[in-house]
Amino acid sequence: MRHSKAEQHGPTDFERPLADRGHRDAAEAGAWLASIGVEPDHALVSAALRTQETWASVSDGAGWTLEPDLDRGLYAAGPETTIDLVRLVPEDATCVVVVGHNPTMAYLAQMLDDGTGDPDAVAAMATDFPTSAVAVFSYDGDWSSLGVAGARLDAFHVGRG
């Protein structure tokens, strides 16, 4: 997931908060995720303020109480490094949510897609990956083995509240 709409200014880029719209959009994305049966047991979230606030609003919208794994490295990570971070999630995790920044999240979603998923989701994701965009993948394997073209895109949604 890409973080939701943030304010244009903050003390630093890392400390930019979500805009009111961002909170609404993230809550809607969370409600949508819950409606399709997504229930994560691990969340990898950039430590930037806007991604933390996105996770909090997504969780509220979905009714989840999961505490995120905040990672400062995810703030500036490229797609390859982000895959490396996902490879480090606990082996017993069955559903992982990653909340990060663009362009990394858009590139990561394109890299993970094995081309066998839902054609409408593939087409929607290929045209844009705006704030509050969520790509839902299926992956059958150990997280440590996740690689390029290693997951099937099942759904794509842009939260708009």
Summarize the structure.
This protein is an alpha/beta fold and 161 residues long.
Question: What would you note in describing this structure?
Answer:
With 161 residues, the chain is α/β, with parallel strands linked by helices. It has one domain (13-158): Phosphoglycerate mutase-like (Rossmann fold). Helices cover 38% and strands 16% of the residues. The chain has six helices and five strands. It has helices at 20-35, 49-62, 73-76, 79-87, 104-112, 119-127, and strands at 42-46, 69-71, 96-99, 133-138, 152-158. The strands form two sheets. The protein has a three-stranded parallel sheet with strand order 2-1-3. The protein has a two-stranded antiparallel ribbon with strand order 4-5.
Provide keyphrases for this structure.
alpha/beta, 3-stranded parallel beta sheet, globular
End-to-end gap: 16 Å
CATH architecture assignment: 3-Layer(aba) Sandwich
Give the beta-strand count: 5
* Biggest sheet layout: 3 strands, parallel
Radius of gyration: 14 Å
| Helix vs. strand class | alpha/beta
Enumerate the strands of the largest sheet in spatial order, edge to edge or round the barrel.
2-1-3
Enter the CATH topology name. Rossmann fold
Overall structural domain count = 1
CATH superfamily: Phosphoglycerate mutase-like
Reading the helices and strands in chain order gives: HEHEHHEHHEE
CATH first level: which class? Alpha Beta
Shape: globular
The total count of helices amounts to: 6
Q: Helix proportion of residues, in percent? A: 25-40%
Poorly predicted runs are none
Strand-residue proportion: 15-25%
Pfam families: His_Phos_1 (PF00300)
Protein name: Histidine phosphatase family protein
Organism: Nocardioides agri
Keywords: Hydrolase
